[in-house]
Amino acid sequence: MLRTLKVLKEELSKLDIPLWVEVVEKRKQVPERIMGLLERWGVRHLYSNMEYEVDELRREGKMVRLCADRGVAMEVVHDTCVVPPGRLKSGSGNQYAVYSPWFRTWVAHVHDNPELLEILEPPSRNPQGTREVFGPLFDCQIPDHVEGKTLPSEEQTRFRALYPAGEHEAMKRLEMFCEEKVGSYREKRNLPGTPGTSNLSVHFAAGTLSARTAVRYARDRNNTKKLNGGNEGIQTWISEVAWRDFYKHVLVNWPYVCMHKPYKPEYSNIEWSYNADHFEAWTQGKTGFPLVDAAMRQILHTGYCHNRCRMVVASFLSKDLLIDWRMGERYFMEHLIDGDFASNNGGWGFAASVGVDPQPYFRIFNPLLQSEKFDPDGEYIRKWIPELAGVQAKAIHDPYGRGAEALARKAGYPEPIVEHSGARERALTAYKRGIANG
Ligand code: FAD
């Protein structure tokens, strides 16, 4: 974020537009701090981007009242989603809680409202003399770190190389993806060992790429020039970007999901395990389930892992370990470079069967089968678990169960911390009981 702000400051500076960054210790200080600045600068008009999470909406509500009291006009714009929340309703006038019919309506709505994909030109250069008038505002220094949240320098270097900041970088990545990979996206998007996805989530989360720009760019490369039909890779990719909109619509329609509550209230009474050793093993990639461990180590090292792996590790935590999904949700938000409340909450709701997904709770991923299916040659596992690099063929998915135990033990790779079929039975019983008491 801080690197992104620095790039933005440089870009705006070329147009003689200042960027001022304030760091506040507590979120609730934000409204008063902004009001103080407005007063100091004699501002009469305030614009902001809408954030839909409950705390952010409360903050915005407070800002509206403060601005009204002090004679400042406030205007909030919807920029996060392609289709602003609240617009899409089913034939019976209800909010959608299922993705597929929602997506069909989303596509039709965007076709009928082409202005949703229009992109404003960047602002022009400020008139001469502005720099003199706003002089001190240009002096704002963007900090290199926020107190108490500094990364060790080795990590800073790594993250800088992995995630170059700024909207030009985002655009470059989008162009490259559409040029080289989107055509095979449909076939490859589920394979963590083959980098077939866009890796653009970091830019969506940082605000350096809008969903609108991404969807428009991909649509224009489709031979139908539409969101549907034509190139299957492009269609599929657009439908994935739409999931981001979907989960934001969900949290606007059911705001209690922002308050640590499951979308399905009847899932509120599951008796979770709070086994600290198991949770620790999960976070460190030491569960003895190679695909789970590879993904968790990738998150530790890069702040990212593939969508298929996110589903597998989230299902493993909430079902195999029966650990409260909210602990995983929070861990992801603390560690993901693309952390986005709505997508993360939606993903955890899906994996733990407590969210909008209509599948019942007894869909429980088998981590070994997932591994065989989506990382058949073990390429991904070998990359992230060097201890297992020498394990051959199918034993890579389950070294202790398939004859590679001597090698795994010698290399210090842990034995499985649970046995899947027993863990599955335990989860089914706990969910059933929880729902009965719900
Ligand atoms: P691509 O496959 O190239 O997809 C393009 C874009 O579509 C993504 O960048 C993302 O913005 C959107 N997208 C794709 N799949 C999903 C999805 N299932 N839900 C919502 N948006 C999607 N995504 C986040 O951006 N932030 C999160 O904090 C986050 N947490 C997740 C937690 C769990 C448990 C799960 C199962 C999924 C989570 N996702 C999250 C969704 C998804 O895993 C990532 O968006 C995706 O892996 C990013 O990689 P990519 O940019 O290469 O995706």
Give me a quick take on this structure.
With 438 residues, the chain is mainly α. It is 51% helix and 2% strand.
What do these coordinates show?
This protein folds into 3 domains: 1-77, Rossmann fold, CATH 3.40.50; 86-122 and 153-253, Serine Threonine Protein Phosphatase 5, Tetratricopeptide repeat; 265-437, DNA Cyclobutane Dipyrimidine Photolyase, subunit A, domain 3. The chain has a two-stranded parallel sheet. The chain has 438 residues and is mostly helical. It contains 20 helices and 2 strands. The model has no long low-confidence stretch (mean pLDDT 95). It has helices spanning 2-14, 30-41, 54-69, 99-112, 130-133, 153-162, 167-180, 185-188, 201-206, 211-220, 232-253, 276-284, 290-302, 307-320, 325-335, 341-351, 367-374, 379-384, 405-411, 420-437, and strands spanning 45-49, 73-77. Helix 15 (325-335) packs antiparallel against helix 16. Bound molecules: flavin-adenine dinucleotide. Flavin-adenine dinucleotide is lined by residues 189, 197-201, 204-205, 240-241, 243-244, 247, 306-307, 310-311, 314, 332, 336, 338-340, 343-344, 346-348, 351.
Features:
Rossmann fold; single chain; 438 residues; DNA Cyclobutane Dipyrimidine Photolyase, subunit A, domain 3; binds flavin-adenine dinucleotide; 3 domains; mainly alpha; 2% strand; 51% helix; Serine Threonine Protein Phosphatase 5, Tetratricopeptide repeat; globular; two-stranded parallel sheet
Low-confidence stretches: none
Give the full name of the CATH homologous superfamily of the largest domain: DNA Cyclobutane Dipyrimidine Photolyase, subunit A, domain 3
Please state how the strands of the largest beta sheet are arranged side by side.
1-2
Largest sheet: 2 strands, parallel
List the helices and strands in order: HHEHEHHHHHHHHHHHHHHHHH
GO molecular function: deoxyribodipyrimidine photo-lyase activity; DNA binding; FAD binding
InterPro entries: Crypto/Photolyase_FAD-like_sf, Crypto/Photolyase_N_sf, Cryptochr/Photolyase_FAD-bd, Cryptochrome/DNA_photolyase_1, DNA_photolyase_1_CS_C, DNA_photolyase_N, Rossmann-like_a/b/a_fold
Site (Electron transfer via tryptophanyl radical): 272, 325, 348
Domain Photolyase/cryptochrome alpha/beta: 1-82
